[in-house]
Design a protein that fits this description.
- The protein has about 325 residues and is of the alpha/beta class.
- Helices cover about 50% and strands about 15% of the residues.
- The protein has 10 helices and 8 strands.
- It has an 8-stranded mixed β-sheet with strand order 7-5-6-4-1-2-3-8, sandwiched between helices.
- The structure holds uridine-5'-diphosphate (UDP) and magnesium ion (MG).
- The site of uridine-5'-diphosphate has 16 residues, from strand 1 and helix 3.
């Protein structure tokens, strides 16, 4: 006889990459909020290949409180994949994705829950204000959300990260979407359902450094754009039309100048500029095609999204994907 897994009301999923300085405080803050509200909850910690003491601390937390469950990755697969795994393993009727570093205050979960109880199926947290971020990060993030909003077909809400609550129905829909380059904040909009935002003030990191250096951030931004838009590919077409139109104009002007007996004014410099400019545009276009092609290649290989070394504390079967 198989026992049905116990379904808690709420699963909280937190991805963890080298967060040894934070885990105890995360557990303490979450417990205070969730127990205070009398909820039946579980905390799914996904160890994304940490190289510090995070995995040991996660085990200790699990040993002391079985509501803390651990998914231990075989290596670092990245933040978006870690939250995917957390949602795959989570068993709650509602699943909240939260950063482990306490930039997303656990107290806000109660606001998310209130909207869920009103019947909303995705409740995302909107950053009304960000504390302790560099002006550079704030500016690039703001610009990015505005660009992606413009060039994608779905209405990805502005200034919204992955901090959100999703109903079980939404989580099940997401589980069917196994794309390799994941932009979860877009995917959870793409599925549809009744969505609403709740404002919050994004806090400073509790301890440690950001795990998103500029290079990772750029990759992530590209994943977001390529996942939901063909616009960069179409830019080459627009450039092509503009260049062709200019060329036709150039021919006409040259012919007229020749027939009217004046000297053609095209010198070496203008030829060089035109060649270099078009060469540049062509290389950039090739690079853009490459970005899409590489992602297609990753899809075609059909590898699993992540490899789990060990899963601790989950009842019933491993999630079937
Ligand atoms: N994270 C992860 N894998 C990574 C990078 C980050 O699981 O490869 C986790 C990290 O531990 C944190 C969350 O993702 O819980 C957000 O990362 P971080 O706070 O460094 O990003 P930021 O808030 O600076 O954008
Ligand atoms: Mg952070």
């Amino acid at each position: 006889m198989t026992t049905l897994p116990h379904r808690p009301t709420l699963s909280v999923v937190a991805p963890v990459y080298n967060e040894e300085a934070i885990l105890h405080e995360l557990y303490r803050r979450l417990t205070a909020v969730l127990d205070g509200a009398g909820l039946d909850w579980e905390l799914v910690l996904v160890n994304d290949g940490s190289r510090d003491r995070s995995p040991q601390i996660m085990r200790e937390l699990h040993a002391a409180d079985p509501r803390v469950k651990v998914v231990d990755f075989a290596r670092n697969f990245g933040h978006q994949v870690a939250i995917t795994a957390g949602a795959d393993y989570a068993q709650g009727d509602a699943v909240v994705i939260i950063d482990a570093d306490l930039q997303d205050p656990p107290e806000v979960i109660l606001d998310l829950l209130a909207k869920w109880r009103e019947g909303y199926e995705v409740v995302y947290a909107v950053r009304a204000e960000r504390k302790g971020e560099t002006w550079f990060k704030e500016f690039t993030a703001k610009a990015f959300y505005r660009i992606i909003y413009k060039i994608t077909d779905i209405d990805i809400p502005m200034d919204t990260g992955d901090f959100r609550l999703m109903d079980r129905k939404v989580v099940e829909a997401l589980r069917t979407m196994r794309e390799k380059h994941r932009f979860m904040r877009g995917m959870s909009v793409w599925v549809g359902f009744k969505q609403v935002g709740v404002q919050y003030v994004r806090a400073e990191r509790y301890a440690g450094e950001t795990k998103y250096p500029l290079k990772k951030m750029l990759r992530f931004a590209l994943d977001g754009i390529t996942s939901f838009s063909y616009f960069p590919l179409q830019v080459a077409t627009y450039f092509g039309f503009i260049a062709a139109a200019l060329a036709v104009l150039g021919i006409i002007v040259t012919v007229i100048l020749r027939l009217s007996g004046s000297h053609a004014f095209y010198g070496q410099a203008s030829t060089l500029v035109a060649v270099l400019f078009l060469g540049g545009v062509q290389l950039i276009s090739l690079g853009i095609i490459g970005e899409y092609l590489g992602r297609i290649y990753d899809e075609v290989k059909g590898r699993p999204l992540y490899i789990v070394r060990e899963a601790l504390g989950f009842e019933g079967d491993e999630p079937a994907l």
